[in-house]
Amino acid sequence: KVKWSDKVSDILPGFKMSEPYSTAEITVLDLFTHNTGLGNADYLWVFGYDRNEIMHRMQYIPPAYSLRASYTYQNLMYMVAGEVIRVISGKTWDQFIHERLFTPLGMSRTYADHSAIPAGENVTTAHFRHPDTDSVMTIPYVYGDNIGAAGGVFSCADDISKWMRCMMDSTKYNGKRLLKPETWAFLLRPKIVIPGLMYPTMAELKPHWQTYGMGWFQHDYRGQMLNFHTGSLDGLTAIFGLLADQQTAVYILGNL
Predict the structure, then answer these.
(1) Looking at the predicted structure, is the pLDDT value of residue 198 above 90?
(2) Given 3-state DSSP classes, what are the helix, strand and coil percentages for the chain, each rounded to the nearest 5?
(3) CA distance 239 to 224
(4) How many whole angstroms separate alpha carbon 72 and alpha carbon 91?
(5) If you ran DSSP here, which 8-state letter would residue 192 be given?
(6) Is 227 helix (H, G, I), strand (E, B) or coil?
(7) How far apart are alpha carbons 117 and 163 in whole angstroms?
(8) Where are any strands of DSSP class E within the chain?
(9) Triad 90, 144, 26: Cα angle to 5°
């Protein structure tokens, strides 16, 4: 129903960048690689605009660089990818990922929308360390359902282990696969080179190369290819690491 090379504006007529050339040329693949020329405009979702309004306002953001000429990490294009899913499938990103990912893997306590969490469910509380007193305190929750397709999933340790087991071995689960092996391999194939040090840990690890696949940061680690990604809202953090060649995965979730 859709190819990586399809033009986004053909699928979403309301998708516009500030430059007509970028609007016409951005492909579905470009939505995942942080090099469309859009700078970091995450305030649009932090301010609480809905998905349609965010996409409408993107046309007023001056380009940070020409299409595919550089790299800026930002979340808005992943939201646009979620809207592509909505148009192609006829279901919202939230519904689609629940039916096509969570349910087959048996992730029964995982939600793609905070409002879908049942009342009375055991939910973590966000915490923050006060910079002056060093005391730990609870803080208000930051809702990100309007940018959900950029990673707004609420889950638990048991369910995340099911997803990581699936991802570390070509999306196998219960004798089946979520994706064709070649599609899984494509997700982990480097797409762009990341300039500079993306994370402070890189100064310690001193990787020889850093790339970005489809939703995965990548670099070498002791002769292996490491795929990883972090996630963070105020007082809530996550990091996932994947050594696919070793069929090893590690994840850490935190609420401080």
Answers:
(1) no
(2) 35, 20, 45
(3) 18
(4) 29
(5) E
(6) strand
(7) 19
(8) 127-129, 136-138, 172-173, 176-177, 192-193, 210-212, 217-221, 224-233, 236-243, 248-254
(9) 55
103 CB neighbour count, 10 Å cutoff: 12
Are the C-beta atoms of 213 and 190 separated by less than 8 Å? yes
Q: What is the pLDDT of residue 40?
A: 87
pLDDT digits (tens, 9 = 90+) for 222-233: 999 999 999 888
Report CA torsion sign: 9, 150, 188, 182: negative
**Residues 153 and 111: beta-carbon distance below 8 Å:** yes
Tokens 């929750």 -> residue: 141
Q: What is the dihedral of CA 172, 177, 183, 189, to 10 degrees?
A: -10
Cα distance between residue 45 and residue 216, in whole Å = 22
174 phi-psi bin (left φ>0, alpha ψ -120 to 50, beta other): left
Cβ–Cβ < 8 Å for 119, 111: no
Query: Amino acid identity of 251?
Result: Y
Q: Return d(Cα 155, Cα 107) in angstroms, integer.
A: 8
